[in-house]
Design a protein that fits this description.
about 200 residues, globular, about 40% helix, about 15% strand, alpha/beta, 8 helices
């Protein structure tokens, strides 16, 4: 199980949490820990908790339209593997930034302050294993954590890189409401990338 995070490294995010505790006293309003087995072969990395999603539920991607799409795509990809007689790998879900940032836009220093958590999560990934990044910010946070060059591993929907021996890095547009509304991402496009990550070195 994930350990509860007690962190006050980012004054701006701490101040927002305190305001939201008054405004939404029933919400989680605290750093959001990863969910899923620590030894899962697929690590999914998003941006940050959503105001009425993970910031409310305390679980990454649970409670908003982003999560609805992500979990539907995960189940669809797992069903495709099962249909081919393959065992879908367990997955773990986390965020590059553990706390809700104002306007969903974390600053570079806030991303860096959360890097130690991402270091541990990536270090726990078995070999073979895959990392799926949702959006450019999460992708570049993983690159920084793994000390990979951005020029050699640019973000693009559907991109796949060998990030380390036995570790695949896959990228997708974020499943945000905005990206859904503009047609940048939908269930089929997200499912296809998740399926490729699940099939990595099966």
């Amino acid at each position: 199980m994930s350990r509860k995070i007690r962190c006050a490294r980012c004054p701006r995010l701490v101040a927002l949490r305190r305001r939201l505790r008054r405004q939404y006293p029933d919400y989680h309003n605290a750093p959001v820990t990863a969910t899923g087995p620590e030894d899962a072969r697929l690590l999914i990395v998003g941006l940050a908790p959503g105001l009425h999603g993970a910031n409310r539920s305390g679980r990454p991607f649970e409670g908003d339209s982003s999560g609805d799409l992500l979990f539907a795509a995960l189940q669809a990809a797992a069903a495709r593997l099962a249909g081919d007689g393959l065992q879908p790998p367990p997955w773990r879900i986390t965020n590059a930034v553990k706390c809700l940032p104002p306007e969903n836009r974390p600053r570079a220093a806030e991303i860096a302050n959360c890097r130690s958590y991402l270091v541990r999560e990536i270090a726990a990934l078995p070999t073979p294993g895959a990392i799926l990044t949702l959006g450019r910010v999460a992708h570049e946070a993983v690159l920084s954590t793994m000390k990979l060059n951005r020029g050699d591993h640019p973000f693009a929907h559907g991109a796949h890189y060998d990030a380390a021996p036995g570790t695949g890095l896959f990228a997708s547009y974020h499943c945000s409401r905005y990206n859904q509304n503009t047609g940048r991402i939908d269930r089929e496009r997200l499912t296809a990338v998740i399926e490729a990550a699940m099939r990595y070195q099966l």
